[in-house]
Amino acid sequence: MIRAAIGRLRRRDRQPAPRSGSALILLYHRVAKVRSDPWDLAVGPRRFEEHLEVLRREACPLRLEQLSRALVGGELPERAVVVTFDDGYADNLYNARPLLERYEVPATIFLPSGLIGGEGEFWWDELERLLLLPGKLPGTLYLNISGHAHRWQLDEATRDPRADFLRNRRWRAWEDPPSARHSLYKSLWDLLHRSGDEEQRRVLIELRRWAGVDEEGRPSHRLLSLEETSALAEGDLVEIGAHTVNHPSLSSLSLDLQRNEILESKVTLENIVGSPVTSFAYPYGKRSDYSARTVALVREAGFTYACSNVPGVVTQSTDRFQLPRIQAHNWDGETFWKHLQEWFDG
Ligand SMILES: [Zn+2]
After folding, report:
1. Disulfide-capable partner of 25 in 65, 82, 90, 142 (CB 3.0 to 4.6 Å)?
2. How far is the CA of 110 from the centre of ligand 1 (A)?
3. Distance from Cα 178 to the centre of ligand 1, integer Å
4. Which pLDDT score, from 0 to 100, does residue 157 have?
5. Closest Cα to residue 336, out of 122, 133, 71, 44?
């Protein structure tokens, strides 16, 4: 099925020559099938395989470190593409790595050092579990977040949660919320995204109590354990990069706290994988999530390059400490390559 798709693509879409000296860095999070995915973080295993097949046949997969060297040395191969993953979901080891191996596509995986090896889910996944999966919720929620009192009314959305779930399963968080549940999810995401990790934990405890849901996370959403992190890093296919300790929006922290988050993640991950960690990715990665001071701290910490989540093409003049990335979605191979070509061809 994959080969047939590629065949069609080759016949129909013979591309013009790409701009010289440009490269793409792809951003993935998960290789898995999930019930709901408000941030479009999961690419299905079969789809991911199609992406890798396209990269092997049509592009030049590079390591991040090779790209960085090419930028300094001035020679970039045509259609250079780097694969990266953020956050350290366990499926990176079980679903992504075997496929990366099969297609010999290297990848860099950015891990928040204080969260891997821990129990439970990421706060954004737990928020989705509590609010978007079908389940009865009380009609009113009162919460105090970062010193501000909030109140939400859910009545009309809680009458038939299963129907609401099925109707809006494909909702994405950047679209208008289709129900009060989705509105609540988005408001809480916005509030928690810039709260400290203690505040996030406290709010989630209150939310669980309110929703009558226990703490136990879904095995499908768990993070890598320490042993799994070592297994993922084995050999030279996968590079481990740092993604802070607690995954904060760095610009919301004092410079001292930012420095700790950046430095400590480097040291901890080096101890886990037993080799230098030279790459970094800013959590959430939008321009508002880090500042020029953050970039300077990353440089001072001894990293040699860093990735943002700002979409764009890498060229000779790109700042190595703010490398743009393009999020890969759950596209089939043909759509995937079309998007890549659009980026390459400008
Ligand atoms: Zn992240």
Report:
1. 82
2. 8
3. 26
4. 59
5. 44
Ligand 1 mean position, distance from CA 158 (Å)? 31
The closest of 339, 336, 313, 315 to 324, measured between CA atoms, is 313
Least confident span in 75-79, 298-302, 318-322: 75-79
Q: 27 Cβ partners below 8 Å, 6+ apart?
A: 84, 85, 86, 307, 309, 325, 326, 327, 328
**C-alpha 333 to ligand 1 mean position (Å):** 25
Supply the pTM of this predicted model: 0.91
Distance 140 CA to ligand 1 centre (A): 31
pLDDT beyond 70 at 9: no
What is the amino acid identity at position 267?
V
> How many angstroms separate the alpha carbon of residue 132 from the centre of ligand 1?
21
Predicted confidence (pLDDT) per residue in 141-172, tens digit: 999 998 899 999 887 656 677 888 888 888 99
Question: Is pLDDT above 60 for 205?
Answer: yes
